[in-house]
Here is the input.
Amino acid sequence: MSEEKEETSWASVAILAAAALAIALLVWRSYVNDAPRVQAYRAPAAAVSTMPRIETAPSLGALAESHFSARRYDEAAKVYRRMLELQPKDAAIYNELGLALHYSGKGDEAVAALKKATTLDPRLQRAWLSLGFVLKSLGREKPARAALERAVALDPASAPGVEAASMLRR
Here is the structure.
């Protein structure tokens, strides 16, 4: 390569490097100058928490499930109750509420919620299984047996039916 071309290519590299440095400096200055405005804009975030939240049963369901999975059964029960305000005739929610109440040590409330689930949807096999499980754990063998037999009768081959049959044998 000739010396003239080599000097030209080094000059081009130097110009590009200077331009890149200038751009980086401008971006940095822009960030430094705008940062207080961005922070000031975010400062009233406390006001956002006072805004009404739009709650849906699916979003609340995910929250309740996370509480339940973390064994925060009282918190899960509160969320299930809120879900029932939105969907008061949902037997599946009553079933979940009943289980959360059971694990919270509120056996009678759990039984009431599970009975409500079976009343709202007598074909909800999981509610019969849950009712039988809770009644059995409370020592109420006769009603537990009836609930578990009902769960099996609905569909003996399904997972809840198989589990109910297993509980009947114990």
Notes: The chain has two domains: 3-49, 57-169. The mean pLDDT is 85. The chain has nine helices and no strands.
